[in-house]
Backbone:
């Protein structure tokens, strides 16, 4: 990020995107009005400022000298933004997202730990059936899926590392091997990723994993029952072969069964023999981090309600939303603020066209409290004022 603090917040956000590193020569061939980079920055600005439609983006550009100057674009129609979003090469946006996430991880000393933990899961986004027939799954569902891998970092929200967008009829295990790359980590997955052939493949390739299985996944053979620690949530710790006479794993795995706070039994299989059963249980409990991440992006970014209903437009919007997410993370880290990621994004939205120094001051602001707060009093409460505007009719409860 630059050191010129009198620049606008949105321009400082755009400074994370290098025009030199990101080129779209084919997409911009003979383009005179709206280049790919200008359109991408407009959509990123819409995510950061929480604009709800192409019309609102077009209006914000016309009314903002700051945005016009930063983009070198006086105005553009909503229809032109819509058409351009559908033509941006999605394969060129993914490296931009990955580059920003790499910068985020470089600033986190905790990611250099030898005990890295990554979670793989998917979430669905519904689309209108009449406008997105390409995403049809069944008569009741028209949706897409985001298959994602996130890195768990202590004390902060999970960091998205990779995403594969698909239609809703693509199963989780069809994409999982594209999300597994590093042997020096532990991958945590839910029941949708159970496939015996994959377990054998991961064991052969020395991939460390913790995967939840259903009750229907029977134990074919028990090789060893390991000692279970007393007075803990651990119910069983064993080396087993999963399956039946018809289909089974070729290799043995470690089966750990444990109880949650409500007494429900969870069964997970793992290739981590060096960890205690309690550590395996705690690792699986971290899977909730990706659920919180999905909830966050759906609530605070423009993902649930998409601008476009064509495949490439939807994919592009999702990647640009994740780029905005990464930019907010970088601002949070660079400022050294104690505010949460959501509070940082709120601050950006309140000051996107203000000087960057003003936002920095707000991010570093310390809460001051000169009084002791409201104290309890023995005085009788004041009489309640009943407004004269409005009619209230109380009914007796029988």
Residues:
């Amino acid at each position: 990020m630059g050191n010129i603090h009198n620049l606008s917040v949105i321009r400082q956000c755009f400074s994370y995107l290098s025009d030199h590193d990101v080129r779209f020569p084919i997409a911009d061939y003979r383009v005179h009005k709206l280049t790919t980079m200008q359109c991408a920055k407009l959509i990123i600005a819409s995510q950061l400022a929480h604009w709800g439609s192409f019309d609102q983006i077009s209006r914000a550009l016309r009314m903002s000298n700051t945005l016009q100057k930063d983009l070198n674009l006086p105005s553009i129609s909503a229809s032109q933004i819509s058409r351009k979003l559908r033509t941006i090469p999605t394969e060129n946006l993914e490296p931009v997202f990955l580059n920003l996430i790499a910068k985020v991880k470089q600033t986190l000393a905790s990611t250099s730990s030898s005990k890295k933990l990554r979670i793989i899961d998917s979430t669905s986004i519904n689309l209108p059936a009449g406008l997105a027939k390409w995403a049809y799954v069944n008569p009741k569902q028209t949706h897409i899926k985001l298959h994602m891998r996130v890195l768990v970092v202590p004390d902060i929200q999970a960091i998205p590392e990779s995403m594969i967008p698909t239609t809703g009829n693509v199963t989780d295990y069809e994409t999982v091997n594209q999300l597994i790359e590093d042997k020096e980590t532990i991958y945590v997955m839910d029941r949708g990723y159970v496939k015996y052939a994959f377990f054998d493949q991961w064991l052969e390739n020395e991939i460390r994993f913790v995967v939840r299985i259903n009750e229907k996944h029977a134990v074919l053979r028990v090789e060893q029952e390991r000692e279970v620690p007393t007075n803990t949530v651990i119910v069983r710790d064993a080396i087993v072969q999963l399956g039946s006479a018809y289909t089974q794993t070729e290799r043995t795995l470690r089966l750990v069964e444990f109880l949650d706070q409500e007494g429900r039994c969870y069964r997970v299989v793992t290739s981590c023999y060096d960890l205690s059963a309690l550590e395996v249980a705690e690792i699986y409990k971290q899977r909730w981090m990706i659920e919180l991440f999905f909830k966050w992006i759906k609530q605070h970014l423009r993902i649930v309600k998409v601008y476009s209903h064509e495949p490439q437009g939807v994919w592009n919007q999702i990647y640009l939303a994740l780029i905005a997410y990464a930019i907010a993370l970088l601002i949070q880290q660079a400022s050294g603020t104690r505010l949460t990621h959501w509070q940082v994004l709120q601050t950006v939205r309140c000051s996107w066209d203000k000087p960057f120094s003003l936002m920095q001051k707000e991010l570093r602001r310390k809460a001051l409290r000169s009084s002791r707060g409201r104290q309890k009093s023995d005085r009788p409460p004041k009489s309640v004022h009943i407004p004269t505007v409005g009619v209230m009719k109380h009914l007796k409860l029988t």
Observations:
- DSSP finds 13 helices and ten strands in the chain.
